[in-house]
Each structure stands twice: as structure tokens, then as C-alpha cells.
Design goal:
Keywords: Coiled coil, Membrane, Transmembrane, Transmembrane helix. The chain is mainly alpha-helical and about 325 residues long. It contains eight helices and no strands. The longest helix has about 120 residues.
């Protein structure tokens, strides 16, 4: 009891110490000013405005609140503990003790028999409690076994259902793959047939084009040969007769051999062979652009040089239209 009182007093003193130690100067001055303003008989005169200003500028810190809480908890702890330790209404009811009938002979008390009866009663209670516990455990075991059996049966049913679903899924997948395979084979066969037909048509088309080209070239060659023959017959002139009197020909009139530095032109060669119109066309081409004369240094101008003196061996571009070299008429139509 003394220890509790000492603890309560120490707690209250600790709370008061915390509250007093955490007070600042402003709070102390505010308390003094408020007390002086409320006591008009004191020698210290305090203005009311200053007192009100100091009165409302004394904030309470958290440490002071903690000190107050410690003080009040120490004050009310004892009453709270007494209230908690007070017996309840049910505890206040008197406990009915089992009535023990006094023996017939009050002077003779068989203590050994009473103890044996109490022991037997306790043993019987323990046996009943043990039996109840065993029954409860047995019921729990039965319930757990039934639950485990039910769960196992559900698992078996679920496994069988999953197996059936898997089998049905596999069968449907196999049927789908068979349908897809058949459709794919059919599509490939159709594509192969189409490709074969297209290739056959392309080969037939190429063969027809080839035959048409061969026929066109044959007709062109025939026309060209016929035209050349006609032109040769039309423009061929008999060579001039050589005079039979060589003694009359003077040295001045006799043809002089051409020097090697100045070879015969294409037009001169054409005139020797009797192709006078072709020689004129060669002269015109020579004067225009095809065969340009050499410069003083021996180089050719911008024109393309002649490969040879023979006009029949002049190469034309492949894209040019095949024309007659004599009359200029288009032969390749």
C-alpha cells in the first residue's frame, strides 16, 4: 500500500515537474500580468490592452499537455483501478456449495470414505470428460475422412471431365487439321494446275511470236533481195569501152595512179562500179555530217570516222530502219 502511494506521489510530482520545466518566459509573464490585472490593489499598474495582449499570446506546448496528462492519469488511476477490480453482479451472487449431509453419528467422521468418494467422483468426471473428448475426436476424424473422400471423388470427377474434354478437343483438332490439310492439298493442286496452264500458254505464245518473227524476217529478206535485184537492174550502166588505139592516148590524158596517202573515196569506188546515184548520196552525206574531212593535224572532227572505204561495209545502228542504200526507200516494214 505504501509502495502504491509512493508511486502515485512520484508520478504526480514528475508530471508537475514536466509541466513547470516546459513553461517559457512568455507564459510566466502572461500569468503574472493576468493576476496583476485582476488584482487592482497591487502596486504594479498594468494596462488593460497590454494585459489582453499578453493573455492571448501564451501558447501551450506539447510537453505541458503531456505533463497535465501524467498528473491526471496519476490522480485517477487509483479510482479507475478500484472500479476495474470491483466484483461484477454475477460474481456477487453467492456460490452454492454442495450440501454435504452430516453423518448419522456426528461424532464419528469417516474421513477416509469421504476422500475415497471424492476421488471416485473426480475419476468418474475425468473418465466422462475423456470419453467426450474421444467422441469429439472420433467425430472430427469421421468428418475429415468424409471430407477427404468427397474431395478425392471431386478430384477424380474433375480429372475424368478434363480427360474427356482433352479427348474431345484432340478429336476436333484432328478433324480440323484433316479439313485444313485437304483444303491445302486441293489449293496446291489448283495452283499447280493454274501454273502449268499459264506456263503452257506462255510457251505457246512465245512459240507463236518466234514463228511470226521468223516469218517476218523471211519475208523481209525476200523483199530486200528482190528490191536489191531491181535496183541493180535499174541503175546498172555498162562500163565505158576501152579505146583500142593506145598509141593515141597521151601521157597527160592517161590516168595516173593515186598515191598511197590519198586513198580512193567511197563515192569514187561507187562510180567505178556504176552506182552513180549512190555516189551522189555519198557525196552529200560526206559534205553534211557522216564523213567529215580531216583537220590539218590529221584528226577527225566531231563526226564519226569511216571504218573502211567500201560503202557497203558501213555499219548502221541496230535500231535504224532498214533502207535501201541506193534510193532510200524503207524495206523493213
Amino acid at each position: 500500500m505504501f509502495l502504491r502511494f509512493f508511486i502515485y506521489s512520484q508520478i504526480k510530482e514528475f508530471g508537475a515537474l514536466v509541466f513547470a520545466a516546459t513553461m517559457n518566459v512568455r507564459q510566466v509573464v502572461s500569468i503574472l500580468v493576468s493576476y496583476a490585472a485582476g488584482q487592482p490593489g497591487l502596486l504594479i499598474h498594468v494596462d488593460a490592452r497590454f494585459a489582453s495582449k499578453m493573455k492571448y499570446h501564451n501558447p501551450v506546448t506539447a510537453w505541458q499537455i503531456l505533463g497535465l496528462l501524467i498528473i491526471f492519469s496519476a490522480l485517477f488511476y487509483k479510482s479507475f483501478r478500484a472500479m476495474m477490480e470491483a466484483p461484477s453482479q454475477e460474481e456477487k451472487k453467492p456460490i452454492l456449495e454442495p450440501k454435504v449431509e452430516a453423518p448419522v453419528e456426528p461424532n464419528v467422521i469417516d474421513k477416509k470414505a469421504i476422500i475415497e468418494d471424492m476421488i471416485a467422483e473426480r475419476v468418474q468426471k475425468v473418465e466422462e470428460l475423456t470419453e467426450r473428448i474421444q467422441r469429439h475426436q472420433y467425430r472430427q476424424q469421421l468428418a475429415e475422412a468424409a471430407k477427404a473422400k468427397l474431395m478425392k471423388q471431386q478430384e477424380l470427377e474433375l480429372a475424368a471431365e478434363q480427360q474427356e474434354r482433352a479427348a474431345a478437343r484432340a478429336a476436333s483438332m484432328a478433324a480440323f487439321e484433316a479439313r485444313v490439310g485437304a483444303a491445302e492439298r486441293k489449293r496446291r493442286a489448283v495452283e499447280a494446275e493454274m501454273v502449268r496452264q499459264l506456263r503452257q500458254q506462255e510457251e505457246e505464245k512465245q512459240e507463236r511470236a518466234k514463228q511470226a518473227e521468223i516469218e517476218r524476217c523471211r519475208l523481209r529478206d525476200q523483199r530486200l533481195a528482190r528490191h536489191r535485184q531491181q535496183m541493180a537492174e535499174k541503175f546498172r550502166r555498162p562500163a565505158t569501152a576501152v579505146r583500142q588505139q593506145p598509141e593515141i592516148v597521151t601521157a597527160q590524158e592517161a590516168p595516173k595512179p593515186r598515191p598511197r596517202s590519198a586513198p580512193a573515196s567511197a563515192a569514187a569506188v561507187a562510180r567505178r562500179q556504176g552506182l552513180h546515184l549512190f555516189a551522189e548520196s555519198l557525196d552529200a552525206a560526206h559534205n553534211r555530217y557522216l564523213l567529215r574531212p580531216r583537220t590539218a593535224s590529221g584528226k577527225m572532227g566531231k563526226g564519226k570516222p569511216a571504218k573502211c572505204a567500201d560503202p557497203r561495209e558501213l555499219q548502221r545502228p541496230k535500231s535504224a530502219v532498214l533502207c535501201c542504200v541506193t534510193c532510200g526507200q524503207k524495206v523493213d516494214k
